[in-house]
């Protein structure tokens, strides 16, 4: 016997209610837009790059602020800063990209304020919304750096990346591609010395040619830069940078991905905590950074197993998003952690309504989403969330890391100097002692000049009436 139509309707309604999905928060990592080449630093965001990140901002506005995937509780038009977190390293290209994205994400909203006097004040630039871009402690100057690890101060990460240059994979490619890179010399000899046009500099050679292909209509190389040659230049650069950013048996070189994982977990935990407290904050976090962080994060979360294309350098304005969502009924309040899920989306290049991000499985699995518990445990295996953890992993013990120094053997500043008779002095301690020695010499010289020249010290206040307020010593 078939159930009544009314019963079927109720069952369908219940099923659709259970299947209803709610986005609770998002954390995104975004690459900058088109820029000038690294080899001609300082790099700058181009007009094309500005348009790319602005368009991306418009798309994600349509997805997370106004569309069917709108983040629950987020302001649609007028930004509420407590709901938003925007970060980027101290870098012209990355910070400019962040601001360009925000112009598309939260466009101008004209507002008029009435003062106590009755005067009306209209917001400048049609209501341009002022959204701060917070700076990150690491990654400064990323886009001016020719070598992938130049923007990090992590000693062990640099050492790990350098290991790639002694690997059999690198050596084989360096030798087998000599003639190929020699054929490119006529194209790049205005920027590079011939000896530098090798696989060792695969990325910056590719980068220069790639920028020229986009912007230089008169590049005199049509016979050399065939489609197959351009493909090989790109493929070699991909392999070179992947080798520097990730290695399954030597993951220390992926420190930027570890830091990103820590920042994702920290932000999403705040999203959950604030939601359970009934607060409307920590809804959307976005960080702008370099392709190295993409690579590191891809490798650490095994995304290359889902699609080998993740081993290629992401295009300008690429973006990845981690969506925290639930299918639970929210009428009873914020869902429990057991009802929370996370999915990963990626788009290579500028995302638009006609070319949207695609969902990929994390951690080598095949599911489109993982439970919050599995996600936090998966990232927690390698995430770096505190300065202390970063210092220990990197083997750094000076500057900020001095408070956590343990004298470990990985720290270059505490390594024994076998050519001397004792311990090698750390750079920090040597600098302090050197400063005091210099100060003593300067003071001693000044004292001798004053004694021999018949000078005496006089208060600036006492000199005010003599018309020489900036004189600190006068002849007796």
TrEMBL record:
UniProt entry keywords in alphabetical sequence: Membrane, Signal, Transmembrane, Transmembrane helix
CDD domains, alphabetized: HP_HAP_like
Pfam families listed in its UniProt record: His_Phos_2
Chain segments annotated as transmembrane: 427-452
Signal peptide start-end: 1-19
SUPFAM superfamilies, sorted: Phosphoglycerate mutase-like
GO molecular function list: phosphatase activity
Family in the record: Belongs to the histidine acid phosphatase family.
Protein name, entry field: Phosphoglycerate mutase-like protein
Organism of origin: Pleomassaria siparia CBS 279.74
């Amino acid at each position: 016997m078939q159930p009544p139509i009314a019963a079927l309707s109720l069952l369908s309604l219940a099923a659709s209610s259970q299947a209803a999905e709610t986005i609770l928060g998002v954390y995104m990592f975004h690459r900058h837009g088109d820029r000038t080449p690294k080899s001609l630093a300082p790099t700058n965001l181009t007009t094309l790059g500005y348009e790319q990140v602005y368009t991306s901002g418009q798309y994600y506005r349509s997805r997370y602020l106004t569309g069917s995937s709108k983040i629950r509780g987020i302001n649609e038009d007028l930004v509420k800063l407590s709901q938003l977190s925007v970060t980027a390293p101290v870098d012209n290209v990355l910070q400019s990209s962040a601001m360009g994205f925000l112009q598309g994400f939260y466009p101008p909203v004209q507002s008029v304020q009435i003062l106590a006097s009755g005067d009306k004040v209209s917001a400048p630039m049609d209501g341009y919304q002022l959204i701060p871009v917070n700076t990150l402690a690491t990654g400064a100057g990323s886009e001016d750096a020719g070598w992938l690890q130049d923007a990090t101060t992590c000693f062990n990460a640099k050492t790990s990346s350098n290991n790639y240059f002694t690997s059999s994979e690198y050596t084989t490619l360096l030798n087998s591609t000599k003639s190929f890179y020699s054929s490119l010399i006529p194209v790049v000899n205005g920027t590079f010395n011939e000896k530098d046009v090798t696989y060792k500099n695969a990325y910056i050679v590719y980068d220069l040619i790639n920028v020229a292909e986009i912007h230089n209509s008169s590049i005199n190389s049509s016979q050399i830069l065939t489609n197959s040659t351009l493909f090989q230049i790109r493929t070699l650069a991909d392999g070179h940078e992947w080798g520097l950013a990730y290695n399954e048996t030597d993951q220390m070189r992926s420190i930027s991905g570890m830091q990103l994982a820590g920042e994702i977990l920290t932000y999403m935990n705040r999203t959950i905590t604030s939601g359970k407290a009934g607060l409307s904050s920590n809804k959307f976090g976005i960080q702008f950074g370099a392709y190295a962080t993409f690579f590191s994060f891809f490798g650490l979360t095994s995304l290359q197993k889902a699609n080998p294309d993740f081993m290629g350098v992401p295009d300008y304005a690429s973006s990845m998003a981690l969506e925290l969502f639930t299918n639970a009924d929210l009428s009873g309040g914020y869902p429990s952690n057991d009802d929370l899920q996370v999915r990963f989306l990626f788009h290579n290049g500028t995302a638009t309504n006609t070319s949207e991000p695609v969902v990929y499985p994390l951690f080598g699995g095949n599911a489109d989403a993982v439970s919050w518990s599995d996600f936090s445990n998966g990232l927690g295996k390698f995430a770096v969330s505190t300065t202390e953890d970063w210092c220990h992993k990197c083997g750094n013990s000076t500057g900020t890391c001095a408070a956590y120094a343990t004298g470990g053997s990985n720290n270059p500043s505490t390594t024994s100097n076998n050519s001397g008779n004792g311990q090698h002095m750390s750079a920090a301690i040597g600098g302090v002692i050197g400063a005091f020695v210099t100060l003593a010499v300067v003071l001693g010289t000044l004292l001798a000049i004053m004694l021999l020249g018949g000078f005496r010290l006089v208060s600036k206040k006492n000199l005010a009436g003599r018309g020489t307020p900036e004189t600190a010593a006068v002849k007796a």
